[in-house]
Amino acid sequence: MTAPFATLDEFRRTLEDAPGPDMETLAAANDRNGQLTKPPGALGRLEDLAIWYAGWRGQAQPQLTAPQVLIFAGNHGVCAQGVSAFPSEVTVQMVANFKAGGAAINQLSKAFGATMNVYALDLDMPTQDFTAAPAMSEAEVIQALITGWNAVDPASDLVVTGEMGIGNTTSAAAVAAAVLGGAAEDWVGRGTGVDDAGLQRKIDVVARGLALHDVADPLQALRCLGGRELAAMAGAIAAARHHSIPVILDGFICSAAAAVLEKAHAGALDHCVAGHLSAEGAHQRLLDGIEKAPLLSLGLRLGEGSGAALAIGVLKGAVACHSGMATFAEAGVADG
Ligand SMILES: O=C(O)c1ccc[n+]([C@@H]2O[C@H](COP(=O)([O-])O)[C@@H](O)[C@H]2O)c1
Ligand SMILES: Cc1cc2nc[nH]c2cc1C
Q1: Where's the active site on this chain (predicted)?
Q2: What's residue 2's pLDDT?
Q3: What is the ipTM of this complex?
Q4: Cβ of 72 less than 6 Å from ligand 1
Q5: Please, what is the angle between helix 252-264 and helix 228-242, to 10°?
Q6: Nearest by Cα to 318 from 55, 20, 15, 16
Q7: Using CA atoms, how far apart are residues 320 and 325, in angstroms rounded to an integer?
Q8: Most buried of 48, 83, 92, 217 (most Cβ within 10 A)?
């Protein structure tokens, strides 16, 4: 499918024109939830999740059988500033590992019955160092948004957006500060594990990036401070919305990309849930900024869509209970 935008302004209009949930289905799913053989509310957040999922799918008794995990990889010019515990070559090496089936996300995708696609985004052409120039031109950010958009299979019934990119917690922190406000030190964490000096360098780098660029517009923040994998995740999240496919967001970098959409158009993430709370220090602040409560909190800080892939199991459980359970009338159970 051809992406319906060729400029950032057209992408913004795509967000504005996106479909909402089916309100009749939401009401029907809510009604069904009230009749299932359990005390009211006893399945906790699983009940809200199932109703939310039904609404987006337009089916009061939906199935969840075709989840798609998307991994986008990008390289970052800002790595020249010494902001990661690992060298940039690891990005392309991990892409090879994904393709060979050897990464954590390969095992988790398989465990939860998801297809997995990997997109390496111009890894031999890192983004510009955002302390010196905009990370991407408009053409480059649009190209990455389109790659993400086209990666979504309209036949899938759930999308997980993940990433790989040495240096991208620095870009994500800068994007988060630009779109949600606050100072560099509020958003910078240790990523893959930088030491105290590395942490200070990251804070300084993010502060300089914020001072250099005009990032009042969230889509300009994505272009000037982000990376190709962040833009591709944003494009995939927007495409999923266009196709009424729910999304599970992953960790800190994915959430920063998602925050761009929410700030570009309020409600743009209504079809998304937060899969987990990352161990990256500022992830809680970021989730607060997009008003999402994580489904899991397991101390993960891997990326690759790993936390979101684990949450596929939670969502599958919610949908299975909602669609498969008997009602009080069907089971002949006395309804309190
Ligand atoms: O998802 C997260 O919350 C997360 C937190 C810390 C690190 N990562 C991963 O680690 C890489 C970025 O870390 P860094 O230190 O190179 O900025 C990138 O490949 C991410 O997928 C991911
Ligand atoms: C080995 C390694 C694997 C990763 N997966 C996602 N980010 C990563 C960063 C590193 C360093």
Answers
A1: 304
A2: 85
A3: 0.99
A4: no
A5: 60
A6: 55
A7: 8
A8: 83
Q: Which atom of ligand 1 is nearest to the CA of 79?
A: 16
In short, whether 192's Cβ falls inside 6 Å of ligand 2 is: yes
DSSP string, 261-290: HHHHSTTTTTTEEE-B--SSTTHHHHHHHT
Instruction: Give the pair of three-digit tokens for residue 192.
Output: 């893959």
Note the pLDDT tens digit of each residue in 251-277: 999 999 999 999 999 999 999 999 999
Write down the CATH number for the domain with range 66-315. 3.40.50.10210
pTM of the model: 0.99
Pocket of ligand 1, candidates 302, 304, 306, 310: which has the most ligand atoms within 8 Å of its Cβ, to mutate? 302
Domain ranges for the chain: 66-315
Q: Tell me the residue ranges of DSSP E strands in 165-309.
A: 247-249, 272-274
Tens of pLDDT, residues 174-201: 999 999 999 999 999 999 999 999 999 9
- Is the minimum distance from the CB of 287 to ligand 1 under 6 angstroms? no
* DSSP calls for 48-117: HHHHHHHHHHT-SS-----EEEEEEE--BGGGGG---SS-THHHHHHHHHHHHT-SHHHHHHHHTT-EEE
Active site residue 304: yes
DSSP type of residue 216? S
User: Bridge-partner residues for 327, per DSSP?
Assistant: 36
CA dihedral for 210, 216, 220, 226, sign (positive or negative): positive
Q: Which of 83, 192, 280 for a ligand 2 pocket mutation test, highest count of atoms within 8 Å of Cβ?
A: 192
d(CA 103, ligand 2 centre) in Å: 9
Nearest-5° Cα angle at 78, 73 to 81 = 135
